Amino acid sequence: MATVEAAAEIVREIAAVGAADLAAAAEPLRSDCLRLARKVSLLSHLVAEVAEAGEADAAAAAWVRELVRALEAARRFVALGRAPPAAAGASDQDAICNNTAVQLKYVTWQLQAALTNLPHSCFQISDEVQEEVELVRAQLRREMEKNGALDVNIFTKAHDILARIDNAGSQSQQPESSQMEKFRKDHLELQNVVLLVSEISGLSKSDMTKITSELIEGLENVRPPDSPKSVNVDSQSSDETKGSSEKVKKPDSVATPEDFRCPISLELMRDPVIVSTGQTYERAFIQRWIDCGNRTCPKTQQKLQNLTLTPNYVLRSLITQWCDEKGIEPPSRSKNDGSFEVGGDRLAIEALVRNLSSSSLDERKSAAAEIRSLAKKSTDNRILIAESSAIPALVKLLSSKDLKTQEHAVTALLNLSIYDQNKELIVVAGAIVPIIQVLRMGSMEARENAAASIFSLSLIDDNKIMIGSTPGAIEALVELLQSGSSRGRKDAATALFNLCTYQANKVRAVRAGILAPLIRMLQDSSRNGAIDEALTIISVLVSHHECKSAISKAHAIPFLIDLLRSGQARNKENAAAILLALCKKDAENLACIGRLGAQIPLTELAKTGTDRAKRKATSLLEHLSKLQVL
């Protein structure tokens, strides 16, 4: 019988899987297993809260069984990466990769389905955990979109049958041998998918046959009439056709559809990506545009709301399909298509990457320094360095006893993380924990760049959860904020602000002692920007009820009122916003600002401040007026 305890055990087992456990696995299975383990580990808080609530009714118990089935499939997939690889030829290896891709797609779909079906009314799920669940769902949804929507109908059918088998254990009529033979002939690809789904679900042969039987029946009932392929009556002779098909055309010999051309380069796109305005560009050219400091869409001139580049897999597939139909060689990264030079640069970078694992300390240090420099220069270099497998080698160097080597490695990772696609590669390579170690124990420059790396990685929402839940991460940033260099404190403040946009990290930061340095920063007029940084972080923290209480107890109110009197316009605005948040539904805090004489600066701010400052000041004055009436 599936229980919450079983789910918790599976989550713990999968979360404990690290890169070392998957050392024997080939790519992409190794990376797939690591990514899956990372997603599952984020469900530990959900399972804990479900266990506390208990299975109150049949709906709750049914959902727990669904979750356990999904987690068991995930555990079996991760086990594939831990098993010794079987000897296989190139063609067999391709088949293995295709099979594991189908199984990963099913596991991803099944987990997403379970989280989507979570009956919130049955369990008392906290806001923080609901936020975690939504982030994991979004991540799983992106994984599904990336891999395409094929097989989902089969997944749904198989999933429903699995649920019936699990719930009732009933036996169905076995298909006749003639029917099975027909299925093998007509649906070989479908049969393979069913087999793969059944294997990853841990089914017996009889259960596999049950699913196959019901799928045959469903397919026969909904099968559309066969449509004959169109025949071109004016086609050339077979010899001519054969000759023309063997000759590969060049893209410029055929009119390229306008939608397939990059609006910047006007060339056929090989890696189309979508920007925030919805326009599609070739990745290399739009990345160059952004790297030059442009923040508008080249085609529409609209402001880019963010700098995320989302792969346009649908368009890429259409371009590939069009190239096949026209006999054109599809564009690929292996050609010099304007994105970067691939000859000497690639060979030089690969040589540097090999030196990162050299037995000579000087060679390792020199290679890390050179990669650090190259990664700073251009997006093209960041792509090439990552493709040359430099990231895992740099992560290993974070544990070097030589502080300079350590500094070069963490700074190289920081520079590589500027390219968004590399952020996930860095996290998957297990970089978070060693970066935290550098943040705690490295040289001051290494600590500064470690804090900057955490900020860069935390720009991905999923990473906020992982970094925040890593033991010692927020504590190390608070320590740097308190005692670091001027630049170190700034880097720590930026990283902490970004991490604290996630609810659970706000409490972690307050418990780690962030308020003491923030209160000191409110009084520090000597360092440019210190007050602004402190106010920005406090304004994020104050939205959490526990943090709001802690801010009041830290005696922040007098310093905030001082800023109303003498601060810069932006600081007055933020101080008023924080005071309003502290005083809402809190008569004690409201009385406190009244005693400290906040009415005069608030009245002035309501007349002369920014629009936002006027609104906050006016609202505070109204609250004070009501308090006086009472």
Protein model, in words:
68% of the residues lie in helices and 1% in strands. It has 630 residues and is mainly α. It folds into five domains: 4-219, no CATH class; 248-326, Herpes Virus-1 (2-Layer Sandwich); 340-430, Leucine-rich Repeat Variant (Alpha Horseshoe), CATH 1.25.10.10; 436-524; 555-630, no CATH class. The longest helix is centred in the N-terminal third of the chain and has 27 residues, at 90-116. The chain is globular.
Keywords:
three-stranded antiparallel sheet, Herpes Virus-1, 5 domains, Leucine-rich Repeat Variant, about 70% helix, 33 helices, about 625 residues, mainly alpha
Indicate the percent of residues in helices.
55-70%
Distance between the termini: 60 Å
- Residue windows where pLDDT falls under 50 for at least 5 positions: 169-190, 219-248, 333-344
Oligomer: single chain
Number of strands: 3
Give a brief outline of the structure.
The chain has 630 residues and is mainly α. The protein contains 33 helices and three strands.
Question: What's the topology here?
Answer:
Layout: H1 4-15, H2 29-41, H3 44-53, H4 58-82, H5 90-116, H6 127-147, H7 152-168, H8 177-186, H9 188-200, H10 205-222, H11 238-246, E1 272-274, E2 280-282, H12 283-291, E3 310-311, H13 313-326, H14 344-355, H15 361-377, H16 379-387, H17 390-397, H18 403-416, H19 420-428, H20 432-441, H21 444-457, H22 461-469, H23 473-483, H24 486-499, H25 503-511, H26 515-522, H27 530-541, H28 545-553, H29 557-566, H30 569-583, H31 587-595, H32 599-608, H33 611-629
Antiparallel strand pairs: 1-2, 1-3
Helix pairs in contact: 1-2, 1-3, 1-4, 2-4, 4-5, 5-6, 5-9, 7-10, 9-10, 14-15, 15-16, 15-18, 17-18, 18-21, 20-21, 20-23, 21-24, 23-24, 24-27, 26-27, 27-30, 29-30, 30-33, 32-33
